[in-house]
Design goal:
alpha+beta; three-stranded antiparallel beta sheet; 16 strands
């Protein structure tokens, strides 16, 4: 090779790392972590604990992987990029899995974690000028392959929608609407009831955002009287559906009877129809005010609660269709009980009645179908044959008749689609109540990210419960960053009434005004930096950014020369001066 021929020293792919690091810097991630996680005795290396965690989060978000043992080799592969971002020399051994495990233990401490969250919340809200008037709260579970350590540990068996055969821990979070950014994240034993987790979550949010004027939205598990009293006592507001425990089915029917009699006027919620089409009826309902008293701090406090009885049209149609399917299935199954089939044991009349009742219970249609079993007895004479004498044989034939109870079915259907929402914010009308609760899917989106891709919390492979809790806290930081990356682009598109084109691979013409963080960050994956040596001099060469990538930097309010600056900061390897 001639002396003038370029020699490639290394090639690294910064991809989305500079974008993520810029967001880290805006929210002061490493700074606040270092404030509450100072270096312990015998800490070695140029990086602070906060910087180590920040680089670890780069790995988690960029690779959609949180395995501790995978960080060290990744840091070695991206050593120059990370050094340019952090402004310090990077050593791969700074990210050994033992060190990362120790950091998980430290951020698992509730007091330390609460202080980190409070600082991040206050700073992020100021920097991004986020609205703070609406907070959503919910709980979920995360299962593990580890064994239950003790009856008082985090891992316990409990009700789970994921995998009831594995022990789990329970997670509660409060997110800021509309972007879905986690404000607080707490971890409790897996057999903890959901209801008691709401008051501590509300108290933690108040520690960050203050008391008064906030609206807390949750599901029916937030409707416990003590939780509602806690919210009302602080001058805040709540919105949640009432469970059957808080409002019985009998009382609901009493409230709805005027509607069925035609004497109750209903307010309507409509969605504007497309051009040339009429508006779509979304929901209809009415309200009643109820004076309440509840325990708070050892005393009884009183307030007025408005209960909105709302019928969702789409939900009613779905429930009615499901009921019709169950009725048809039960009718067919009951009618076939007495059918004679080869190899099938013939059932007695009592057995048929019991089997029919079990089918109605299973399909949840008891009282909607009337089942009649009739037995017809016939006798026939069997003639003698060889050594067998003649005999009279009695045969019982069963006939099963199934009749629909149309009155009962109509009464069941008229109750479908109705829900009762409770709020102490009396100025809220039906429309904002309906849309506020329908946006509860935003917290479900956070759960999908946390437990699935890209963060992949479940199933948890760690064996130490403290580290499990620390991992949940760590991934909530990653979730916080994802929501900010996504929200900033969506908000700028909304304000400028623009759409984004070119985001979807293979669909160049597809447009969107609500891009996801995952797709936005994936659009930066093609960027790379090559360090080459020419005539004894080294230089970093950056692949040109596409117009679309430059547009994304503008939407993120980042410098257009972000990647050029990164390339200029690449460490220059010592040139090889030895003779060939």
């Amino acid at each position: 090779m001639n002396a003038t021929d370029p020699r490639v020293i290394c090639v690294e792919s910064p991809a989305d790392l500079p974008v993520l690091w810029s967001v880290f810097a805006r929210v002061g991630l490493a700074t606040f972590l270092d404030r509450h996680l100072p270096p312990p005795p015998l800490w070695k290396g140029p990086l602070t604990p906060g910087e180590v965690i920040a680089v670890w989060l780069l790995f988690v978000l960029s690779r959609a992987d949180h395995c501790l043992s995978h960080v060290e080799p990744w840091a070695e592969q991206h050593r120059h990029t990370l050094s340019a971002l952090v402004g310090k020399p990077i050593r791969a051994r700074d990210f050994h899995d033992d060190r990362l495990a120790d950091l998980l233990n430290r951020i698992s401490v509730d007091g330390v974690w609460a202080a980190v969250e409070a600082d991040l919340n206050g700073h992020t809200i100021r920097v991004y000028q986020l609205p703070t008037d609406l907070v959503r709260i919910d709980t979920t579970t995360a299962n593990s392959y580890a064994d239950v350590v003790s009856a008082h540990g985090l891992l316990q068996f409990g009700h789970s929608k994921d995998d009831p055969h594995r022990p789990q821990l329970k997670i509660a979070t409060a997110i800021l609407d509309p972007l879905g950014m986690p404000l607080i994240t707490t971890v409790a034993p897996g057999n903890t009831a959901d209801d008691p987790m709401y008051v501590p979550a509300i108290s933690a949010v108040r520690a960050s955002l203050g008391t008064g004027g906030k609206t807390y939205v949750g599901d029916c598990k937030m409707s416990a009287l003590g939780t509602r009293a806690c919210v009302a006592s602080g001058g805040d507001f709540y919105l949640c559906p009432l469970s059957d425990v808080q409002l019985s089915a009998t009382r609901r029917r009493e409230l709805l009877q005027p509607v069925w009699d035609g004497s109750q006027r209903l307010d309507r919620v409509v969605r504007p129809g497309a051009e040339g089409k009429s508006d779509e009826l979304v929901a209809e309902g009415f309200s009643v005010d109820v004076p309440l008293t509840g325990p708070m701090g050892g005393t009884e406090m009183g307030w007025t609660e408005r209960r909105w009885l709302v019928r969702s049209c789409a939900y009613a149609v779905a429930e009615e269709s499901a009921l019709d399917r169950r009725l048809a299935k039960a009718q067919a199954a009951v009618g076939a009980l007495a059918a004679r089939k080869q190899g099938k044991k013939r059932m007695s009349e009592v057995e048929v009645v019991e089997a029919a009742a079990a089918i109605l219970t299973r399909e949840r249609v008891t009282g909607l179908l009337d089942v009649t079993v009739q037995a017809a007895t016939t006798t026939r004479q069997k003639r003698a044959y060889r050594g067998r004498p003649s005999a009279t044989e009695t045969v019982v034939e069963l006939a099963v008749a199934v009749r629909r109870n149309e009155d009962a079915i109509a009464n069941r259907k008229r109750e479908m689609g109705w829900q009762v929402y409770a709020t102490n914010r009396l100025e809220l009308g039906l429309t904002p109540v309906v849309w506020a609760y329908r946006d509860q899917y935003r917290i479900e989106n956070d759960w999908s990210r946390l437990k699935g891709r890209p963060l992949g919390l479940t199933p948890i492979y760690l064996q130490n419960e403290e580290r499990m809790q620390g991992l949940v806290h760590l991934l909530s930081l990653a979730l916080r960053i994802l929501t900010l990356v996504e929200w900033e682009v969506r908000e700028r598109l909304r304000k400028t009434e623009r759409t984004l084109r070119g985001l979807y691979p293979g669909q160049a013409g597809r447009q969107t005004s609500r891009p996801t963080a995952e797709l936005l960050l994936a659009a930066m994956k093609t960027i790379s930096v090559s360090v080459v040596e020419v005539d004894g001099r080294t230089q970093a060469l950056l692949t040109p950014l596409t117009d679309f990538q430059k547009e994304l930097l503008t939407l993120w309010n980042l410098p257009s020369d972000l990647y050029e600056t990164l390339a200029r900061r690449f460490p220059k390897p010592v040139a090889n001066m030895s003779e060939p």
